[in-house]
């Protein structure tokens, strides 16, 4: 059992950081009441964390390659714990969002090092088992977040969704220092600060523009300026990466259709499978009257299916070509979202069960294979970069998905409310209130039939959201089937005379 203690330490950190992507979704109504947040503020509680993960993964991964993976992993746990404490003590939405971003910095340091640590600590059959366990934990963590968040919010307080990270982080740090061996850095390349900065500005600008577009106006100078800034920053990122000898992300990797397809799937998987969970939680709590625990338990079909399928797929589908596994998984994710789009104003939580279960099966099939397929499609010394790129794509997809689906959800609410203009004087303001968990206020202003109106508006908004998610999931499945191949990795480039032997190590071979 002692040989699996290092894996336990790594998986504990992985579970914490991925659970925290979605653990806030059932606490949103309580947060709204406690901190007086707007819909945009609620989105940033989720998006600030996911965006920090996406923007910093590649840069922190490069730092870990140089400084040592255990050292950076432990530092990430410390950052994560301190930021979790600050989140739990926050007295306003601005402070909460700020510390969620800091929490994402720690999460990026943890996520950027987990696969590298596993790949260097385990070999042969043990490595396959370790990656299978890690894949199962990763596949189930995001879906398990609402369940854990509901239990903590209802029986303690929403702040405990952050406080609970403190003892777990201390345990993970202690286990890592005691059980994980000191592994020297494997590369001498420095951190690409210009590339990291350009990518962060691009991702942050487009996400902020999407979240604030409804408030500022889609054709306003502010919104158009933010989209323009994102485009300029993206061009700057491309220019920087093309000119650096050791770039943050080698753009030549995208010349292969398989790698490009995997990056597209990474983005679409998070959007189609997880980004709508916040709106399900709002519907269940503010309209259907369920508590945080019940709302979290409504997501159990997804988390249970994802965990079971991910645990079994590595052993049972080992010889299957990645495009079939990933493609089938994405198609199931899309089908699950479309099944949920069948709900109407009279539906309750049971209308989601079948769709969530199908989505969970898809997540369990696709998630564990993504990183290993990306690493297998490149030369060995680029495996760490490829793994980091996949994780970045997934977290960027989650950040953008929350923003995009938030726009779709809000538009669906407002559109349904416009059909009841006599009862709702300002549909847009009423949609803001519903999306912020304040259904009771809207009902009070609407008069008789107010609850029926709120239920119809939420059902319309959710249907639109599920339709978009389902379409993107199916698109991801088609991309995987068309582009992903079991490719033979390109031959590694010849080392320069100055290269050290450690530079030629393979950081993380395919699982």
The quaternary structure here is single chain
Helix coverage percent: over 70%
* Strand content bin: under 5%
Number of discrete helical segments:
20
Order of helical and strand elements? HHHHHHHHHHHHHHHHHHHH
User: How confident is the prediction overall: mean pLDDT?
Assistant: 79
Q: Would you count the extended β strands for me? A: 0
Which ranges are low-confidence, i.e. pLDDT below 50, for 5 or more consecutive residues? 488-511
Radius of gyration, CA atoms, in whole angstroms: 22 Å
Distance, first to last CA = 21 Å
Shape: globular
Structural class determined from secondary elements: mainly alpha
Q: Tell me the major beta sheet.
A: none
Please give the structural blueprint.
Blueprint: H1 5-22, H2 28-35, H3 39-67, H4 69-89, H5 93-121, H6 124-155, H7 160-163, H8 165-179, H9 193-216, H10 221-243, H11 257-273, H12 277-287, H13 292-297, H14 300-316, H15 322-340, H16 350-376, H17 383-418, H18 427-435, H19 439-446, H20 450-483
Helix pairs in contact: 1-5, 1-6, 1-8, 3-4, 3-5, 3-9, 3-17, 4-5, 4-8, 5-6, 5-17, 6-14, 6-16, 9-10, 9-17, 11-15, 11-16, 11-17, 11-20, 12-20, 14-16, 15-16, 15-20, 16-17, 17-18, 17-20, 18-19, 19-20
